[in-house]
Amino acid sequence: MLPFNAISSVFVERFILALVMALLAITISISRWGYSVDQAFYDAVLTRFPSEPPKDLLIVAIDERSLLEIGRWPWSRRVHAQLLDKLREADAQAVAFDIIFPDPDRYDPQSDQIFSEAIANFGSVVLSVHMEQTYQGGQILEVLPTPILASSAAALGHVHVEYDVDGVCRAVFLKEGLGEAYWPHLMLSLLNLVYPDEDYEIPGLRPNESITNSSFAISRDYFNLIPLAGPPPQVESVSYTDVIHDRIPLRTLSDKVVLIGATAQGMGDLIATPFGTMDGVEFNANIYKSLLHKTTIIPVDVHLHWIFSCIIVFVLILSGAYATPRQYFILTSVYVLSITLLSAIFILYARLWFAPLAVIIPLLLFYPIWSWRRLEQAIRFLRRELYRAQQEAESSNQQIDTKLAERLTFVAKIVGLSQWQISDGSSDGSKSFNHMKPIDVVSSDNFNRVSISWDESSDMDTKYSQLWRSAIDLNANVVEKPEKKPAELVTATIQSLRKATQEAEINRKFTRQCLENIRGAIVVTNIFGEAILINDTARSSFDLVEDKPLHLLEFLNDFQIDGNWLHLIQTAILEQTDISVEAKLANTEKEYLCQLVALNWQSKYTDTLLFSFTDITMVKESERARTEALHFLSHDLRSPVVSILALIEQYRNTKLNRDDVVEKSEVHSMLSDIEAYARKNLSFAESFLQLARAEIAGQSKFDLCDIHSVIDNALLMVRHPASQKKIKIDISRTMDDMWVEGDGELLERLLINLLTNAIKYSSSDTLVQVFAEVEGSNLVIKVKDQGHGIKPEDLPNIFQRFKRVAGQTNVSGAGLGLHFVEIVARKHGGSVRVESEFGKGSCFIVVLPAYQDDTLLDD
Q1: Cα(185)–Cα(207) distance, integer angstroms
Q2: Average pLDDT in the chain
Q3: Could you say which DSSP state residue 648 is in?
Q4: Which residues contact 619 (CB under 8 A, 6 or more apart)?
Q5: What would the pLDDT profile of 624-655 be if each residue is shown by its tens digit?
Q6: 103 CB burial (10 A radius; 0-12, 13-18, 19+)
Q7: Which secondary-structure segment (H or E) carries 342?
Q8: What angle do CA 52, 279, 71 make, to 5 degrees?
Q9: Could you tell me if 767 and 732 are in contact, meaning their C-beta atoms sit under 8 angstroms apart?
Q10: What is the DSSP letter of 349?
C-alpha cells in the first residue's frame, strides 16, 4: 500500500493533468478543430434515423417537361396567374413561390397586373426575397418582388440557406435582413399563413454579440439545424404543366400547402445535403415540415459548449483517479461510447446538437499520457529498488565468499570427512583425491572458478555424501553466466524484477518454513489488535480458524494470569519493556510461558505486538511432581524410618539399660513393628520404581501380549491377600483372542494395582469381579468391587500423583497406584476411567487398542 503522501502526490499530478485536458477541450471547442468529424457524426445519426416526410405538402415543379410544353423561361406571368387560379379552384391552403420576381414583365406588361390580381384573389400567397451582392466586394442589396406583386402578396420571406465549411447545407437562419434581421424565412412566413391563430415561438440559436444596424451587412438570427426526411424525392411533386392543363385531379391539390419552384436541370438551385444533392424547393419543404412539427435541432451555444466540455472532461478524468490502468482503459471506452450515445440521443430526442469531439479527444489523449507518466515513475522506482537489492545481494555474496573454507569445515565435521581441500581452477592438487567438483564464485566483481576436492570412503553413508555435495552447491554464487540484458528498458526492468521477485519468494518461503517449524505458538498483531500473522502451531494449539478474524483481548482472556492483560500490553507499549508471564489456558490443563514484545515496524512508534506462547505444561508438571516427591520423601518415607529409630531408642532406654530380663514376646513385638515399617518403606520404594519405569516406557520396546495371560498372572499375585480377607474374585472373560502391543510386566502391574485397591477398600466376605471383553477394535478390562466407593468430589483427582481417597486413613499406601494405572494405559494408547457410587463400590474400566493383524488372527 502506498503511503498517504505518495497517494496525494499522484492525485495532485492527476488533478493538474485533468486541468490541462480540460483546457484542451476548451481549445478544441473554440477553434472548432475536428469540426468535420463532428459534422460527419451528425450526418451519420440523421441519415441513420431520418425524419418523417411531410404529408400535407405538394411541390409544383418547373421541370423539363414544363419547359418543353410551356416554353422557354422566363414565362409570362399570365401562366403563374393561371396556376394560382387552378390552385384556388382546387381549394389549396396556401402557396409559396420559391421564385424571384424582381423586375416587371417587359414582354407583357399587363401580365403583372393579372398575376397581382390572381395573388390577391388567392389570398395566402408568399413571395421570395433575395439578398445579393452587386459585384465582388460591392454593396449588398435586398432583391424584392416588384411593388405590384409585393403589395398583393400576403407575406414575404427570404430563401437563403446556410452552408457549412464543407459545402454541405444543414441549417437555416429563420430571420435575415440588412442591418437588422427582419425578413422571416419563406417557410416561416408560409407557416404563419397556414396557422394564423397559433402563437408560434420562433426556435433557434440567437447570436450572443449585439446586432449591428449597419445597412451594408446582413444580420441573421434564429439559427436552426434541419433534419431531412431522406434522400430526394421524399415530398410529393407534380409537374407545373400538368396542373395548368388539368391533368392532375383537383382532389390531389385540395387542402395542400403548395411550394412552387424549379427542378429543371440548369435552372433550379441544387443544394448539397447529408443525403446528397437536393433541389432547393424540396429543402424548403423539409424546413416547413421541421417548423410545423417543431423538430428543428438547436446547436448548443459555443460558450456553453466549451464550458460543458471543460467540466465533463475534468470530472470524468478525476472520477477514475484510483482506477488501475486496465480499469481506466475500460472506463475511457465507456466514457467515449457514452458521450457518443448521449450526443446522438440529444439529436434525436432532445433536438439539441452537442459536438462530442471536444470531449472525446482529451479523454482519449489522457489515457496514454497518464499511462506514460505512471510507467516512468514505476520504472524509476523499480530501478532504484532493484539497485538497492543488487547492492545488498553483492554485499551478502562477498561476505559468504570470505567464509567458504570455514563453512565447508563445519559440514565436513558433520559428515565425518577429514581429507578435503579448496584449490583455484589452475591448480592440479585435486589429483591426490578421488572426488572433485568445480564451482563458480564471485570475488571482487570477477567470476572465479575453484575446485573442491575430497576423499570419500566406499562405506560412507549415502545421506552424508549427498549432504556434502549439496553444501558445495549452496556455496556456488554463480552457476551460469548471467544472461545478456535486453536493450529495451521496460523489458530489462521486468527481467530484473522477475529475478528479484524469485529471490524474494525464496526468502519468504524460507522465513515461512522457519516460522512454521518453531515449536512455540507465534501470534503477531498490529496496534489495533488485528492479527497479522499466526503460525500453524498457534492455530492448532488454540483452535484458531484461518478465515475467522482474531480479536486480541478476547483471545487473551482465555489465558488466566496473575494480573491484567490490558495493563501488561500498556506496559510493553509505553515503557518498551519485554513482558514474560505464565498463563493457564482456560478449560484445559495446558500452561504457557507468554512473552510479549512491542515492535516498531511501519513507523517510529510502536505499531506491532509479537506474542510468543511456549508450552510449559510438562515443565510445570515436573515441578509439581518434584515438589510432591520432596514432600513424600520428607514425610511418608521419613516417617517409617523415624518410627523404627524411635522403637530402637525406646527399647534401649527401657530394656537394655536395666537388668530386667527381656521377654521373648517383647522382642518379637518390636521386630514385628520394625518389619512393618520396613515393608511400608519397601512398598513406597517399589511404587516409585514402577512409576518411573512406566513414565520412561516407549513403544519401541513393546511386544505382543496376551491379555488372558496378563489377567491370570495378576490374579495369581493377589490370591493370598484376597483369601486373608475372605474376598472372592470372580472373572468373566470372552473366548476371543485378546492381543495388545505393549509391555507385559507393566500391564500385569496395572491389573495388580487395580485388584489390590479393590481388595484393600472392600470389606471381608465381599466379591471382586473382573470382566474382559472385546468391543470393536478395543479391549475392555473392568475391575468391580463392593467396597466403600468414592465421593463425587474426589473423582476428578483420583488418578493424580499422591492423591488418596479422603477418610481412608486406615488403609496404607503412597497414592501412586492409580496414577501408575493411568500412565500405563496412556502409554499403550488407551485410557482408564472410574464409575463409583459412594457406599456401594467402584468399577475401574481400562480400554486398550487391540492388535490388528490378519496373519496373527488366522493362526
Answers
A1: 17
A2: 80
A3: H
A4: none
A5: 666 655 555 544 555 566 566 666 666 666 65
A6: exposed
A7: helix 325-345
A8: 130
A9: no
A10: I
Which of 128-137, 235-244, 556-565, 639-648 is predicted least confidently? 639-648
Distance in angstroms (rounded) separating the CA atoms of residues 615 and 583: 10
* Beta-ladder partners of 420: 454
Q: How far is the C-alpha of 70 from the C-alpha of 262, rounded, in Å? A: 14
Measured CA to CA, the distance from residue 383 to residue 461 in angstroms comes to 48
3-state secondary structure 364-390: HHHHHHHHHHHHHHHHHHHHHHHHHHH
Whose CA is closest to 535, among 550, 553, 554, 515? 515
Q: What average pLDDT does the segment 242-249 reach? A: 90
Cβ neighbors of 831 (< 8 A, separation 6 or more) are 825, 846, 847
260 φ, ψ (degrees, to nearest 5): -115, 125
* CA–CA dist 746, 739 (Å, integer): 15
Q: How many Cβ atoms from other residues are within 10 Å of residue 92's Cβ? A: 21
Q: Cell 551478502 maps to which residue?
A: 396
pLDDT at 481: 45
| DSSP string for 243-266 | HHTT-S-HHHHTT-EEEEEE-STT
Q: Cα–Cα distance between 703 and 5 in angstroms, integer?
A: 72
The contacts of residue 848 (CB under 8 Å, 6+ apart) are 707, 740, 742, 778, 779, 781, 825, 828, 829, 830
Question: CA 781, CA 755: separation in Å to the nearest integer?
Answer: 12
Pairing type for strands 257-262 and 94-97 reads parallel
Which residue is it, cell 477541450? 25
What's the confidence (pLDDT) of residue 396?
Answer: 47
- Residue 596, CA distances (Å) to 263, 518, 568, 616, 709 in order: 100, 16, 9, 16, 55
SS3 299: strand
Q: Give the Cα separation of 235 and 212 in Å (integer).
A: 38
d(CA 311, CA 318): 11
Check: CB of residue 780 under 8 Å from CB of residue 830.
Answer: no
Per-residue pLDDT reduced to its tens digit, 649-698? 666 666 555 555 556 666 666 667 676 666 655 555 555 556 555 555 55
User: Among residues 740, 744, 746, 726, which one has the least CA distance to residue 772?
Assistant: 740
Burial class of residue 336, CB neighbours in 10 A (0-12, 13-18, 19+)? middle
Asked whether 235 and 288 are in contact (CB, 8 A), the reply is no
> E strand or H helix at 397, and its extent?
helix 357-401
